[in-house]
Amino acid sequence: MLRLEKRPNPSKIWAYLAPVLAVFATMIGGGLMFAALGKDPFEAIRTIFYDPLFSEFAWYYRPQLLVKGAPLIMIAIGLSMGFRAGIWNIGAEGQYIIGAICGAGAALAVYPAQSAFLFPAMICLGALGGFAWAMIPAILKTKFGTNEILVSLMLVYVAEQLLSSMSLGLLKNPEGFGFPGSRNLQQYPSAHNAELWAGTGIHMGIMFTFIAVIFAYVVLARHQMGFHIRLTGESPKAAKFAGVNPKRLVVYCLGFSGALAGLAGMFEVSGPSGQISIDFNVGYGFTAIIVAFLGRLNPIGILLAGLLMALTYIGGEIAQSSLGLPSAAIQAFQGMLLFFLLALDVLTNFKLKFASAGSRP
Amino acid sequence: MSETLLQLQGLTKAYPGVIANQDVAFDIGKSEIHALLGENGAGKSTLVKMIYGLVRPDSGKMRLFESPYAPDEPRAARAAGVAMVFQHFSLFEALNVAENIALGMENPPKSNALSARIKEVSEAYGLPLDPERLVGDLSAGERQRVEIIRCLLQDPKLLIMDEPTSVLTPQEVQTLFATLRKLKEEGTSILYISHKLEEIRDLCETATILRAGRKIATCDPREKSARELAEMMVGGTLNSAKPQQGKLGDVVLEVADLSLEPQTNFGISLKNISFSLRKGEILGIGGVAGNGQDELLACLSGEVLGAPEQIRLNRLGIGHLAPNARRSLGVLAAPEERLGHAAAPDMSLTENAMLTGMVRKDLSRSGFLDWPGARAFAEEVIETFDVRTPNAQSAARSLSGGNLQKFVIGREVLQDPSVLIVNQPTWGVDAAAAAAIHQALLDLATQGAGVIVISQDLDELMEISTNFAALNAGRLSEARPMSGLSLDEIGLLLGGADAAA
Questions:
Q1: Cα(A200)–Cα(A197) distance, integer angstroms
Q2: Structural contact between residues B207 and B193, judged by C-beta atoms closer than 8 angstroms
Q3: What domain count does chain A have?
Q4: Is residue A31 a part of any domain in this protein?
Q5: Pairing of strands B270-278, B419-423
Q6: Do B75 and A237 touch (CB under 8 A)?
Q7: Which residue from A177, B106, B257, B365 lies 20 to 30 Å from B125 (Cα-Cα)?
Q8: Which value does ipTM take for this structure?
Q9: In angstroms, rounded to a whole number, what is the distance separating the alpha carbons of residues A162 and A157?
């Protein structure tokens, strides 16, 4: 019989080594899967991990890495704060949509006025939109004790309906020949989240992402709020003894993650995506949950994990088009990454015991 | 003692980094109450787990009734006639007594038959118990009876009891002892684990003393003094703390008409609690666990808030203030549960020093934390209170219970409190550490602080308290000078006699 026994002092080295090993294990597991599908496993792994960075078309893929990675990282940073305290915001996708609608809506409301204040205003409204959407589960939880996992998740579907309604109604492009979708903000200079340096892919949102990473790092390591978040996650009763107000913490954590998700949505709609459309959201809010855990809820880890995740996305697309791998295989590959990480995590914190003795009566 | 029931020969069990038992050998006779004595970490639990089949020895042999005995699971041990009552009960609060007992049986009889059996056994051994009552409504003493009856239904030859009296009132202890003596007369042997030496001298005719995993001696406890036994346990001489007889100062803390509704389903309500605490006083609050101790501590520490005037510090109403606001005024507390309440298990001692020290040790500058300062504070606690740990970066979980308790108490004492409230300050702590903690509390009172010690351990309260009050079913008796109270009077107070008067 197998039994798990908690390690009293889990090794620090293993905690950091686990994600690296998980990546290797995924390569082996994924390679076996690709071989079973009749593809050359080495070719496939190389296409996914190596080509986006070093092939002859890398000049195109490298900026994409930042463009795809930044929203994942920004959302995951927000989520990680709550996750550490045991507050589970699963609805970042919805907050991302609402942030985008609010930011784009502000620009489209004043179209075609040009102003230097428009983009900063959009940033504020995007963050506010995501914050407000996250306040719904927060207030329901603190006032009525509802489960924030369910409420925030359900609100994703509400947000998606709202997105469809916006792209078919209120925000629809009057000059769009009846097609769903808003005006393209890329053609609206005051509202366009343009590349700061041509060809690098770096836009304002990426700068905000780096700021968010540094901010989260400082808060967790040095600030009272971060200490209280960690304490609540470790032991809610000890946190209460230390003077943490659990309800206030729920509001802070959900609010912070909502605001960051809203920001990510705003930067996406005004930049790489350009318009509000029915299929504007592509699951960043959900993938960010994986990124947050892959990065062990640590800001620096999340930065690396977001880039790795973006790499598998881009590499996966290349593999689909050049090797003809089915998209389900790529998704399974990404799933393996999380699976191996969580499995190694368990082994870092627990010992496997092969015991024949029964448990207590 | 004529015949041998269980023979232990050279039992050894090692865990990574520590030898729990080394070459332990002794005999338990038929119809014998045999005490197993030792400090925390001496290897008592491991030894008993080997006998009960929870742990397999690395080497050594056991013989039961002259035949080899090597249980590889508790079921085998029970089949061979060995039963055990654990220190922590494994009972379901939402089920009744009969249902709980049926859950622990291999082939439970029909519920009517079982209820009849339970009644029969409980009456035969003087353990009154109604099979239909919900366990959630039972006192700790009654819950223990459920566990004992569960064992007795198996008709055991050897009954192992792990610290059975730690949750009982003096009267309940006498009832339990009567039961154990009756069992002994009927031929059952009892292996009795305890650290209460007076009890052992009262009850047992043989005692085996373990220290650091080895057997130190097997002797007759009635022929030794409690002090001699304690010194064999710790392997050195003991200094016992003496309460000072100085004059008490002004009233520092006043609690008036404090009531609290139950916070959970099986929580206890507090009813009109009033008392006052003077500078230099140690107020001992006795009572069996589950009578409102945790609730009282939560109200005093600020984890549960109330009206301002319910609790007054130097005439200032503080009943509505959160824990950190109270800390800044000098009201500090140390809860009973060390891991998960007083300290966060997976956090380092430095982080745990920050947990309560942030305010009074000035470790937070406009929200930013002074980690080097916290580390220095943690090291000060470790140094002053002789906490055995590699360094201040060790996780709280990695410390033994006694060491962590010294850290938790030391953390509050070194913050120079004007009022300190501690709940079970020496629960599960060895004699040497307990003496150190007692001395620290006495020193604190001598320096003019008011101290409230909530404890189930009457010996402890008699040793250090100036005044004594009993907590029973959420009511607090009037505080009376400890020196004028007899053990009988205390027992009556604990049973709630004062509440009626």
A1: 6
A2: no
A3: 1
A4: no
A5: unpaired
A6: no
A7: B106
A8: 0.82
A9: 9
Q: Which fold has domain B251-500?
A: Rossmann fold (3.40.50)
Q: What are A226's two structure tokens?
A: 């971060």
What residues in B contact A230, CB-CB < 8 Å? 347, 351
B132 contacts B98 by C-beta, under 8 angstroms? yes
Q: A231 CB near a chain B CB, below 8 Å?
A: yes
Contacts of A84 (CB under 8 A, 6+ apart): A220, A229, A230, A232, A233, A297
**Domain limits of chain B?**
4-234, 251-500
Q: Does A361 touch chain B (CB under 8 A)?
A: yes
| CA distances in angstroms from B383 to B339, B411, B425, listed in the order given | 21, 11, 19
Any idea which residue has 């996305």 for tokens?
A: A313
Beta strands in A57-165 (DSSP E): none
| CATH number for the domain that contains residue A118 | 1.10.3470
Q: What is the pLDDT of residues A309-352, one digit of tens each?
A: 999 889 998 999 888 888 899 889 988 988 898 888 888 888 87
From residue B353, give the alpha-carbon distance in Å to each of A239, B335, B410: 13, 15, 10
Q: Is residue B425 pLDDT above 60, yes or no?
A: yes
Considering only the beta carbons, identify the residue of A9, A222, A243 that sits closest to B368. A222
DSSP H helices in A186-298? 204-222, 224-234, 236-241, 246-270, 284-294
Name chain A contacts of B356, Cβ cutoff 8 Å: 241-242
Round to whole Å and give the CA distance between B449 and B249: 9
- Max intra-chain CA distance, chain A: 76
The radius of gyration computed from the CA coordinates of chain A, to the nearest angstrom, equals: 22
Task: Tell me, yes or no, if A1 comes closer than 8 A to chain B by beta carbon.
Answer: no
Task: Report d(CA A280, CA A270) in Å as an integer.
Answer: 12
Of residues B103 and A70, more confidence is placed in A70
Percent of chain A at pLDDT exceeding 90? 64
Instruction: Name the B residues in 71-90 with CB < 8 Å from any A CB.
Output: 72-75, 78, 86, 90
Nearest to B286, CA basis, from B453, B439, B481, B142: B453
For an interface test with A, give the residue of B162, B369, B423 to mutate (most A CBs within 10 A).
B369
- Give the 3-state secondary structure percentages of chain A, helix then strand then coil, rounded to 5: 70, 5, 25
CA atoms within 13 A on the CB side of A295: 33
Nearest to A107 by CA among A176, A24, A171: A171
The alpha-carbon gap from A186 to the nearest alpha carbon of chain B, in Å, equals: 41
The CATH code of domain B4-234 reads 3.40.50.300
Computed on alpha carbons and rounded to an integer, the radius of gyration of chain B in Å comes to: 24
Nearest by CB: B367 against A225, A235, A243 = A225
Note whether A351 contacts B: Cβ–Cβ < 8 A: no
B235 and chain A: CB distance < 8 Å anywhere?
no
Length of chain A measured in residues: 361
Answer yes or no: is A355 within a domain: no
Candidates B72, B104, B324; nearest CB to A243: B324
Edge-to-edge strands, sheet with B316-317: B270-278, B251-260, B311-313, B316-317
Structural domain contains residue A220? yes
Quote the domain boundaries for residue A286. Answer: 39-349
pLDDT in tens, B340-364: 899 999 899 999 999 999 999 999 9
